[in-house]
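In the laboratory, one determines a bound structure by crystallizing the protein with its ligand and collecting diffraction data. In a computational setting the workflow is compressed into a single prediction: the sequence and the ligand go in, and a structural description comes out. We illustrate the idea with FE2/S2 (inorganic) cluster.
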Amino acid sequence: MTATVGLPLWLLAELTYRCPLQCPYCSNPIDYAQYKEELTTQEWFDVFDQARQMGAVQLGFSGGEPLVRQDLEELVAYAHNQGFYTNLITSGMGLTEARIARLKEAGLQHIQISFQASDPTVNNALAGSKHAFEQKYEMSRLVKQYDYPMVLNFVIHRQNIDQIDQIIDLCLELEADTVELAICQFYGWAFENIEGLLPTKAQVVRAERITNEYRKQIEERGIKCKLIFVVPDYYEERPKPCMDGWGKIFLTVAPDGTALPCHAARQMPIQFPNVRHTPLSDIWYESTSFNQFRGDDWMPDMCQSCPDKERDYGGCRCQAFMLTGDAKNADPVCGKSPYHYLIEEVRINSETPVPFEELRFRNPKNSKSLSNKQLNK
Ligand code: FES
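The predicted complex, in C-alpha cell form:
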C-alpha cells in the first residue's frame, strides 16, 4: 500500500553538534566530529520559511548544545515571528540569566533542561564537567522564575536508575511542570555503551513502581507535575511506532543541512538530501530516502500481513539496521521477528554490565577511533 504523505508538523533544528559535555549516551552520530560546516543564520531562516509554508508548527532547537550558537536568540525570534511554537532542548550549559531573558523576549515558549543524575558527583562524572550540576540547578530555578513551562529530562540508565526517588524529589524541588524519566534509547553513543547502560529488568520494574507511587502522592498533594516514564525497547515484546512512522510528521535538519526523517537515521547507508541543495518540499515529498519506508510496500511478508502494522508501522528502521544490518528487516524488538534473539542476548548480558570506567564518552578522540573501527568492519 502506498502511503499518503502527511505534513512535516514537527521540525527539529539540530543547530550544532558542538557540546561542552561528553555524555556516553549522546544521540548524536558517532562520527559527529567530521561535520563542521554548520548552516548559517540566513540558511536556517530559509529552512524555517520553507517548513512553515509546508505546514510545520512545532520547532525544537537542539544539538549538540544549541546555546553554543550565539545567534540562537535571533533564530528563536525569527521562528516565533513565523508562527512556530518554539522549544529549546538544552543541557543548560551556556545559559545565563541574561540569555534566559533575551530568549523570553525573542518569544521562546518552552525549555527542556537535561540532567545526568540527582547526585552532583555522578552527574558531573557522566557529563564530564565539574560544574555541570550546579549550573543546571541554578538555571532550572531561573527558568521557572522567568515563567517558562519547564521540562526536566533525565536519561535513565544503569548508573542512575536506582536513585529514581532522589531524581523525582529533585524535580519536585525545582518545580518542573513535566519530568521525562526516559530510560535510555540505544542509538548513537548509547548503542556503543549498551553493555554499561542498559538496566536489568528488575531495575526497570522497581523504577516504574516508584514512579507510580510518586504519581499517586503528587495527585494527592495537588502538585502540578507530570511524570513521564519511558520503558526501553529492550524490555518490550512489540515495537514502538518510531517517529510516528518514517517521514510522517517529523523532519530533522542536521547542523550541516542534511535532512533526516529521524535524528538517528544518519548512520544508515542511505544518501540523505541536504537543504543547501534541495528545496524542503522536494525533500519531504519526492526524495527516495524520505519515501523509502513510507506505506508498507517495503515491509517483509511477516510485517505486511501483521494487523499491528497500522499501529507500529513496522517499528524502528534504525534499530533494524543497527541490529541486523538491514533496515528493511522487522524491528528485532518484535517478539515475532526472527532476530528477536538479539534483544534477548542483550537482556542476558545486562546481568553482567561493563563498569563505569569502560564507558566510551562522547568526545572528538573517541569519535575518530570509533568511526575508524566502524569503517573497517
Ligand atoms: Fe530512526 Fe527509529 S530511531 S526510525
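The longest strand covers residues 150-156. Keep in mind that any predicted model is a hypothesis to be tested, not a measurement.
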